[in-house]
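Suppose you are handed a protein chain with no further information: no name, no annotation, nothing but its sequence. What can you learn? This example shows the usual starting point.
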Amino acid sequence: MHKSVLDIIELLQERPVSSVRPDIIWSERLDTKIAAMPLKKLFPEDNEEKVYGLALQAAFFILNDSLSKAHDVLQDPLVYDKNETGDYWHALMHRKEGDYNNSKNWFPPVHPIHEQLNSKMREYLETQSVQDDGLQASLQKLSEQSTWDPSLFVDVVEEEVKKGFSDEARTILNNIQWIELELLLDFTCKHAFGKSIAELAPSL
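A reasonable first move is to predict its three-dimensional structure. Written in structure tokens, the prediction is:
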């Protein structure tokens, strides 16, 4: 494993939960390291691993709230509209920037992380005592779905942002998104390198 990737993972371990509607890039230093990923050395062939490698670079940018650079990577013809995971990251990028309708267009209808995401989301919500009735109703509807519904979560985020994004909504929605980001990052990493984040950097 190239040290540059391990350095990125190590820096990401330091960041707090990211916002569903970020204002600024979290770390310029991290941004520089992500941009310098030696993709040609890591993935010399234009194959499926390289598609996931590009998706992983975009994922790192998204986790750093560097949305414009993530979008540039996702526009690469090798990854653009090529598989459900690249499309998923494309959708997350647009959701974070507030382009909600476009976000819905990119979400794959099904993805391998959906079942686990739905389960973890429900477990998290069971620990929360939601005070806002409107938010509670939206989260209840979300948790009643048989599997993760990405478009419905977009609707919840959009509604709460329009309402002013209370501290309560911010905390809960950010934490749900963080579960989603971690699961999708791990999935992407496994398909790019054959190992999970924990397996790549067990000491972190």
